[in-house]
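FIELD: query
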Amino acid sequence: MTLPRLPLLIAASVGATALMSGCVAMTENHYGAERQAVARIGDFGEATLINASGQNIGRAVLTQGPSGLLIRVEADGLTPGWHGIHIHATGECEAPFTSAGGHINHADGAKPHGLLNAQGPDDGDLPNIYADEQGRVRAELFTTRARIAPEGPGQWLWDDNGSAIVIHAMPDDHKSQPIGGAGDRVACGIMAAG
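FIELD: result
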């Protein structure tokens, strides 16, 4: 009796074992082509969000997934409506938050701003968040272009000068340069390992 060949099952099993052990893994599909690296699942960090007066208005919790970063945002005291939110290249939050620098976008072949830009997006771009009538935001965002794991896909946020998450006064139109018309920086949080 001949047993059937199971290349897909074996590849999936090897990938699952690597993920469970907490390391970065490269897996192969049944054609032998290499897929993207996966990051160490479960690494986490946090950013305390402050407004221009230095008051604590909430937090952003970062959790590493296998192919990207999940960001949970909880904030109060914002103007009701849509707000742009981006990952910035420097872990500083001195009002008016220009100390956070521009977006993380230092990879080879850096791209222009905008999730809807045909040549974009840059690595710091995120979907808009919405503040309700009381100015509260409760949202989860996901990006494949940033990571807090030591290795894997996306820009590493724990580099020498750190990173920050910045909330803007207006919504991001996801196309125009340099920040999609999102306006002033109204909240900022320095991202730190948890």
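FIELD: remark
The helical segments are 7-20.
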